[in-house]
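QA checklist item 7 of 12: single-chain prediction sanity check.
[x] sequence parsed
[x] length recorded as 270
[x] structure emitted
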Amino acid sequence: MTRFIYLVLVFLISAQSLRAEERVIFDGTTRSTLEEFSLFLEDPLQTLTRPGIALFHDAIIGKPGDGNFTAYKFADLKSDDFVLKLIFEIPEGIRYANSGVYLLYRDPRDADPTEDLVAASALSEARAQAASRRARFGEGPFELDYFSHEIQIIAGTDATIPLENHGAGAFYGIDEGTERGQQRILAPQDLNIGDSYEMLIEVKGLTRRTFLRSTNHQNSDVPVSEMTNLSQEEDPVRGGVPTALLLQGFYNNGRDVQLPHFKRITLDER
């Protein structure tokens, strides 16, 4: 009996170790790893050359183009319990860096679930808001702002103003507060030009937490931001748990803006 219990414990520990193994999305060692990234949405107004991402030496960098920005899917999620880790550098010599990771809840291109009138109405309203914003500003794709949560990565001259819920590590545009569906910004950070960072995005069910750690400075274990999401019944558009992960490509807003240089991206699904 003692031997049987021992074997069961060994099996459970081994199974847990296998489940917690990190999946390497990008490690900078081979060009083939960039194939993990597939174009998901692009600016509908882009004309000649599409902005996006490219491989330069051992890092993912931005590729300028005529459009505003692109988004690339790099993982379909199989679990509602995972940790995404990104290691990136804000390169010397730039004025402004901007990117973000999207937790995608629904594909904005999917048909409305007509059997659920509440969900269909919410999805239609989200699409209408995206179209209205695109018409005003002449750029896109704004669908992601309504169908996902973006964790912001921003640094440089234009990032020195108080950004509140638009700062590095924050859930972009999500109201601050203690209610479900709101975020608590606990340890806001400014990213410095020339520094390297590790960003952790933890998702466990409806709970999300983000961490930013500099490789050049002393760090705290306090999350940058945390939130408890609404359920899908409460918010049919971006409630519940995410289904995929996206990375924002080159962002062209008329300023001297560049993408951070991403050195390593891993996903640990439990």
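[x] summary fact logged: The longest strand covers residues 81-89.
[ ] second reviewer sign-off
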